[in-house]
Description:
Order of helices and strands: EHEEEHEHEEHEHEEEEHEEHEEH
Structural class: alpha/beta
Strand content: 15-25%
Number of helices: 8
Amino acid sequence: MQDNKGIKLFALNSNPELAEKIAAKMGVELSEASVKHFSDGEIQINIDESIRGNDVFVIQSISDPVNENFMEIMVMIDALRRASAGTVNVVIPYYGYARSDRKARSREPITAKLIANLIQLAGADRVISMDLHAGQLQGFFNIPVDHLLAIFFQADYFKSLNLKDVVVVSSDHNGVKQARNLAQLLKAPIAIVDKRDSQRLTDITDSHVIGDVKGKDCIVFDDMIDTGGKMVDAAKALKAAGANDIYACATHAIFSGNAAQDLAASEYKEVVVTDTIAIPEEKQFSQLKVLSAAPTFAKALSLIYHNKSVDTLFQKHEI
Length: 319
């Protein structure tokens, strides 16, 4: 990796572990800043070193607590602008509110667009994120957006397991394109879990598997795991259809409510996620496997800092 000594890399409170890994991969130290919260929830940020004229990168996921972490980004951008930063680049490994990307019902907000507007209004010059829930979110910004993909190192992990007769499974019809992309990298067929009931199921009477999974190792693929309902239901349906070992794979481990407990008690041999969201100790379980997104972010940030194309990260892959 090229010399990154002139870069200024800041971590806020959502995922300092990932920020430290990115800094280590880039061969730099995290820059000094203090982020404090007053008793009433107000945020105070102090930048403890000069950043005048520097290219600054701020790392923060919009994850639980979503609104608090988002406000930290906004206050930090304002602080950096007032400290005369050369450019302000916001690294958002997990872009919260991404599922609110359109009006599905009358009088409904498009919150993902509102978030984009506020980030730009605060003064960001660029956004770097991973596996946005909907690709059109890039168009919500009028500044450059670098959309990184976890699918390549996820595919490399499953290749390393040397699984036989692999089938990539979409947990519903909406995720077929994602499943097809992973299947192409693994040179595997796909299957789909067809769920006819719109509510979360505790049984599999209305779920059917489209595709041949009998005796095969299955990878249920999605961009995120929130409550875990779709994933758990998919595992039950696949096991009923005669699948062999079943793996879950997703980029963002939101793990709301009892998701971790439900996944731990499910049919999955492994639940493979990334560290775009920090997973607290109480939500970790024996089948959980966390892949680090730090190498991908580190390479991307280095390329951006040196004004080189981020596309070089993906040129050896075809999906």
